[in-house]
Every structure is written in C-alpha cells, then in structure tokens.
Write a structure and sequence with these properties.
Layout: H1 7-21, H2 29-43, E1 66-68, E2 80-82, E3 99-101, E4 113-115, E5 133-135, E6 147-149, E7 165-167, E8 179-181, E9 197-199, E10 211-213, H3 223-230, E11 236-238, E12 244-245, E13 258-260, E14 266-267, E15 280-282, E16 288-289, E17 302-304, E18 310-311, E19 324-326, E20 332-333, E21 346-348, E22 354-355, E23 368-370, E24 376-377, E25 390-392, E26 398-399, E27 412-414, E28 420-421, E29 434-436, E30 444-445, E31 468-471, H4 476-481, E32 492-494
Parallel strand pairs: 11-13, 12-14, 13-15, 14-16, 15-17, 16-18, 18-20, 19-21, 20-22, 22-24, 23-25, 24-26, 26-28, 27-29, 28-30, 29-31, 31-32
Antiparallel strand pairs: 1-2, 3-4, 5-6, 7-8, 9-10
Helix pairs in contact: 1-2
Amino acid sequence: MQYAIDSSTLQDIADAIREKTGITGQIQVDMMADAIRSIGNSSSGGGEGSGSDDEDYFQLDAKLNGTYYPGVGVEGFNKVNVSVPTTVSLQSKSFTSNGSYSPDEGFNGFSNVVVDVESMDAILQSKSFTSNGSYSPDSGYDGFSNVVVNVPVAVFQSFTARANGTYRPQEGYDGFSGVVVDVPAAELQSKTFTSNGNYTPDAGYDGFSNIVIDVPQTGETDSSLIQSIIERTISVANFENITNVGANAFANCSSLTSATFPACTRIGTSAFQYCPSLASVDFPACTRIGNYAFQSCYSLTSVNCSVCESISVGTFAYCSSLTSVNFPVCTYIGGSAFASCTLLASISFPVCTYIGNYAFGRCISLTEVNFPACASIRTYAFQSCYSLTSVNFPACTIIESNAFRYCSSLTSVDFPNCTYIGSYGFSGCVNLISLYLTASRVCILYNSNAFTSTPIAGYTASAGQYGSIFVPQSLLASYRAAANWSFFSNRFVGI
C-alpha cells in the first residue's frame, strides 16, 4: 500500500535531518534519502579511530544557492557554499545558411545549435543589359537584389573606304567587326574640249563630277590659233588683251619661242613650265608670277617684268640660258626661284626684303649680288655659287643655315647689321679671309660649324693664310668670350 506524504510531514523530516546532520539551508526532497543514510553511518562509528580503512565521503548535488555540511561521520569537506549566478548572458544570432553553431566565448544561453533552413528552389532571372543603370529583379524572382551595370561607352570609328577589300576597326575602336567594301569598277569617260565652259560627264559614266575649262582668251576668232594652244603646237604667243594667264595655260608647248602679253597682270602656276624653246618673255604690266611659271624653260634669255612685285617658288628654276635679270620693284623672292640657273651672272633687286630657301642655289656663274633692303637670307639661299666674289647686304640682320655654303670664291664679306649666323652659314668658303661684323651688339653664332673649312677656322690649303674677324673694339672681349665665338678667339681684330 502506498501512502502520500503531505508538505508538513516533509518539513518535519527536513528539520530532523538538519538537527542530526548540522545541514543549514533548504533540503530538497531528493536529498533527504542520502541525508538520512548519512545519519546511520555516523552512529555506527564512521569517525576517527573507528578502524575503517576507507573514508566515507559525502556526495552532494547542490542545485540551489546555500551552505552545505557533510553528514555526521562523513569527511571530505567541512562546508560548501554554492552560488549559482542568477543572471544569464544570452546571445542572439541570425542564421542565413544551414550549419552547426556554438555560442561565442563569454555567452551562455545555448551550447550548440544546428540550423536546417528548408531549401528553397530559387527562381533565377536572366537579363541582358545594353546601357548603364541600376536594375532590380522583376516581381516573383529571386537570385539578386540589385544590379548596377556600367557598360563602357563604345568608341565608334568612321572611315571612307576607297578600294575594295575587307576592313576592320583599328585597335581601341568599337562599332563594327568587319566591313567588306565592294565598289563597282568606275567606267571612265574621255572628252576633248575646244572651248571654255562647264562640263559634266554623260549619263552612265563615272570618273569626274564636273570640269571647268578655262582656255586663255585670244581676243581673236582664228580657230586655228585656238586649236594650236589646245594641241600645244603654238610657236608665238602675242595677245594684247589678255589680263590673266591661267595655270598650265602654255605648259609643255615645246614649239613656243616667244610670249608677249602687254596687258597681263598675273601669271598662274606652271603657266609656261617646260617650254624648252621659249627664248623671250615680255610682261610689262605683270605684278605677280606664280609658282614654277617658267621652270625648265632652258632657252630663256630675256625676261621683262619691270613692275613685278613677287616671284614665287621655283618660278625661273633650271632656266639654264638666263644670264641676267632686273626686277626693280620686286620685294619677295620665293624658294628656289632661280635655282640652278647656271649661266645667271648678274641680278638686280634694289628693294627686295626677302630671299627664300635655295633661291639662287647652284647659280654657278653668279659673281655679284646686291640687296640693299634685304633683312633676312634664308637657308641655302646662295649655296654652291662657286663664282660669287662680292656680296652687299647692308640691312641684313639674319643669315640662316647654309646660306653661303661652298661659295668658294668669296674672300671678304661685310655685314654691318648682322645679329645672327646659323649653322654652316659660311662653311666651305675656302678662301674667306675677312669677315666684318660691325653691329652695335655681339652677333649670335648658332654653332661654331658656321666656318668649317674656312681660313677663319684654320683651313689654309686654298687661301694660304688664316682668316680674321673684324669687330668693334668695344666688343672685342665680349666676342672672344661669347658662346661658340670663343673657338675663334685668336681670329678677332678690333676696329
């Protein structure tokens, strides 16, 4: 038969145990049995000198705070104070994937957590982006929360293909991967024109879009004369009323011997180029002559252009029979204007202020030049004028590189206002023994090679003596110490 024990009876039992054992504090029901057994052990002589080899130990399972004593006759501890912390430091964690998790150090609340998130079949979304921007998934899709697209700006290339073939963009360009050009072959058209006018090709032809024909007006009605100009068979050109001779108008007229244009004021580019029989030209009213206008007129000996103000590039180049020219009002001479006029011995340009590159280069018969107004002599202007013995440039301030190179007959030159001499300016003037520089300040010498192979630089094989540089006495010391001039310090003479 089982009996139920009420709470007052349990309290009496607990008090009796405390009285017999000396235990203080509360005694749990599941502790009472062990406590009662310890009383029996104590009364049977379990203390010191009882003759037992094994000590009795008191086993205590304390689950509440308090002070605990061993039972009578039980050794192992005098008393135990139990203090269980009442405050638990809990830890909160968020888990985003399955796994086994433990609390961080210093936290209580759980010893191990295994997270098993139910697998979700995500509906992924695929998108193609062609421009920059910020994109979010459409409703009902998972897989990304936000996408920012930064598409580089394409660099396009434009080009014109003028021949058949396969073309690809140059490195660093986008816009096309390959272009195949297939231009149909042009069907060209040939026409012969006998009068001035505006011409377009016949239907179905390519090759030109528009042609304007400007045949020099003769002022005559002689159709045979017009035809001779067109066919380049004309021998004498004498036109009283023509004011402008166009480009290439008489070029390659191999039979042309003379040209007279009393009213003409302008001669166009290559107007008489390669007229090998042309011996005399008379243009008393012409003020400007174009590029190459009389180039390679090998028989030309007489030129009358008394009011001409400007002579352009290559105008009289290779006129190898020309011996003298006089241009009293000309102020400008273009590059190579008289180059390789190998018989040209005398020239007159009293007001010319500019001489272009190689203007008189290889005029090997030229003996004297006089340019009282010229301020600048450009590169190679008189190079290889082997017969040149006298030069007069009272206003010249700049002599550029190679200006008088290889003028082997020059013995003395005077430049009273020169302030600059370029590289190789007088190089190869093997007989130059006197150079006068009398300006009020030291002339700049770009490079000491300006006098290479001259007596000034110590070359005496031709002249048989050293050269001298004459400068103002007040500048003598300055010249000897100046950059590049110092190489010739012992050649200076003060005057």
